[in-house]
């Protein structure tokens, strides 16, 4: 049985239990404890895997003189994707307009039952820049759990230097290569064990959604988010992949289907990244030389789904506070700020939408500084949707390098894990 089928069965089991079991704090506590342990175990493996693999990947790309070319293509694909997602969502809002929702005054909103997910690390631009280059370089390993960018920057710089003198650098390269392979083996163990714990993630997700008060008030917002997501996930991004690679995009989607299933219920970009690293290697044939750089980069800096959700949410907020039609300036402002804010979410693995809305409303001002509280009750749905789209975007963009045999050798579908 393929991995995606196992994940699906486990996820459906969790959904069924969430819908059928009576409300019980004991049952919720047990299932959410399993979910928390799963998420913590994934992060325990993900960070060192990405750290060591990034250095190896950068070194290999520089040795083959492909680093600059690949880096520029990563930047171009990231910018193109976030622009596509945001413009399509805003454009679709003219066909499926969002309606006003009741004004809320309670700013407490929603919180996850898993404590570490509720921590929002948003030090600001100036402090983030300082943290990238601390006075003591070993401080990069003491940052909060989601703020791994300083460590990855160190890994990138180290990777660019490992190629220089092979006699001196080869022992370090071999050490990093060994660590990378060992943590990849641990990733295989994690993705196998995840089969038995995905149900806890889907159970928690459904329970949180069921707790949303007055879901009918958000019908037009949910409708627009759903329509935009389906259009991008199954039409526009596959079309872009086909135009770039001439490969069947729906067969390509099968390579990372387990990652989509996990993303649909976890909402955690680092867990989704871990599953993608495994499945894109084993199913898609993406070499470590590419995935070691592309997957962390897109995970941190190509949050197209988050940009889309931010844009749609800001449209809803502005319409709810005013009976007037949105002006052209406001629409272009929403597109621009949603794209801009999405590039500042690298320190948020779960509550990126929450941070993005706070930032966007604060920058808009004009009495809407606290406008984000209107969306807080729906945050569980928006967070999971953004996580799903961000994960799909990372996989699609990585597969855009599929024509280069030095970076990818596709596997046959019958050989998929």
From the 3D coordinates, which CATH architecture would you assign? Orthogonal Bundle
Structural class category: mainly alpha
Question: What is the CATH topology classification name?
Answer: Proton glutamate symport protein
Number of helices: 16
The number of domains = 1
Task: Explain what this protein looks like in three dimensions.
With 417 residues, this protein is mainly alpha-helical. The chain has one domain (3-415): Proton glutamate symport protein (Orthogonal Bundle). Helices cover 68% and strands 0% of the residues. The protein has 16 helices and no strands.
List keywords for this structure.
single chain, 417 residues, mainly alpha, Proton glutamate symport protein, 16 helices
In short:
With 417 residues, the chain is mostly helical.
Describe the secondary-structure layout.
Elements: H1 3-20, H2 25-63, H3 67-92, H4 125-132, H5 149-161, H6 166-193, H7 198-210, H8 219-245, H9 249-255, H10 257-266, H11 269-282, H12 288-301, H13 304-321, H14 328-342, H15 352-364, H16 379-399
Helix pairs in contact: 1-7, 1-10, 2-5, 2-6, 2-7, 2-11, 2-12, 3-8, 3-13, 3-14, 7-10, 8-13, 8-16, 10-11, 10-16, 11-12, 11-16, 12-16, 13-14, 13-15, 13-16, 14-15
